[in-house]
Fold:
Amino acid sequence: LLAEHPHVDAEWVDRLIGELDAATLDDSDEALPVGLRRRLIESMPGASATNGPAEVGSAGAGRSQAIPAGQPAQGTAWIRRVPRWSGWLAAAVVAGIWLGTGSGPDAPAPLDFPSVASLSDAVVAQWAPGGDETGADVSGEVAWSASRQAGVMRLRGLAVNTPGEFQYQLWIFDRARDERYPVDGGVFDVPPGETEAEVAIRAKLHVDDATLFAVTVESPGGVVVSDRQRIATVAQVSD
Structure:
């Protein structure tokens, strides 16, 4: 499933399942043997043979209240009464919903051009050449929804690029912002053999009222502020 959904943060899934599993251990799990527990504590940096490091449950400066082996810390007993399988079930449900919808931490649900363009607040603009040779034959359209903070570009005729040499970067001009600093809409490529590229917009900041979209030619990885020396294509939003 992770291979089919590259936007998913695999480490986040691991942490989620691990934390749920740890939180729902029941009392039937075998406790760590006292001898092994003592040796582990004594081997920790700063520990002494007679006094291990301060453990969870310290009761005042210079004193510690050790938790007996196999006994849950105060306040966690009610969690440990939950059946062990419930943690895995919860993780499966969350992961299933996440993978099934394509959502997750900082990962908006994917949208295609018709889906965005059909939204009630969507703005649609047509691409036109911006002066740079890479966009001399460009056409297509862009759709953006402020309520969803999502958009999609369809570009035809934009020159194929070599990512190691240069990449395309989208900029969104917002009526509420200084036009010297448009919002970064993400870096993208046009691979060989593609006659039309459909690219999801990944705005780095909130866009209230988009008035103009521009695609520039930048160094690999993109830039924070473009010098706008090479503008491949622009799309003006009609008032």
Summary: The two ends are 44 Å apart (CA to CA). Residues 52-82, 101-108 have pLDDT under 50 and may be disordered. Residues 24 and 85 are 8 Å apart (CA to CA). The first strand starts at residue 123 and ends at 126.
